[in-house]
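Data card: per-record layout.
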Amino acid sequence: MRIIWGFIKLYLYNLFLFMNINANDIININSETSETTQPTWQNTNYGLPYFDNMTKRDITATVGQSAKLHCVVRNLGDRAVSWIRKRDLHILTVGILTYTNDQRYQSLHADSSDEWTLRITSPQPRDSGIYECQVSTEPKISLAFRLTVIVSRAEILGNSEVFIKSGNDINLTCVAYDAPGPPSFIYWYKGPSVINYSQRGGISVLTERQTKTSKLVISRAMSSDSGNYTCLPSNSDPASVMVHVINGEHPAAMQHGNSSSNSIHSLYCNRNSNFLTFHLSKWLLSSPTKMFSSIPTLLLVTVSTVMCINFSMR
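The structure for this 314-residue chain is written out next.
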């Protein structure tokens, strides 16, 4: 029995030697086979395309500055991405090609990227609305984006006309409303020219970009400082105010809170009084025919002047 068992072991040993393998090789081969024989669909993703919903879908843009809508599509494969304008179902782009005569629309896409961006150059308020990023699956899938195009405007706080007593400071504050972000700069103009700090001392400007605010201070105002002042942020429409620097003998014309309306009213009444004097003298020196034809104008100026006088006496 022992002899037979010895022959069996010798036979098995020679067999293993002949095949040039051992028990460890058998284990390794089995493990390698288990890895390489896995179905290939488990290592390659053949899933359907889907949208990355982490992208921003409510976009606000300013007139004159490009608007961008970012659509991220995963597992796109050989499908095409299109941008559709919802209000008229107009196809704007397919892939990177533009399918509209409005060349302000353009599709941006980098190779090996999942992002497809619709760029609208120089958007206008009429471009506001819903845009869809659409993938050519069957059935098609789409993701909606809302674009709002606003007109950013600047405003100089206070009244449209400012009356400053000679020797006092001119203090103007400009705020850029509805701007999508901090302006790169805020310029101040007097008339058509940027305010020149070197030609006139005592001028200071404090601009706070985060609050979109700029303050202009001109110390010891002189009559030459009178004029139209304009505030122009980089990303907003401008705003203007008329500044009048007047002498100290006209205190009623100073602006302090709501007093500007009274000063404007006073100037208006003075102008009407001058018109009345002019038209009356012209009427007395004119011919009878012209005197008759000038009566409506004379009556209108007279009534307006009387109303101003009555209002001032209240």
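Known properties of this structure: The first strand starts at residue 50 and ends at 51. The two ends are 141 Å apart (CA to CA).

See the next section for split statistics.
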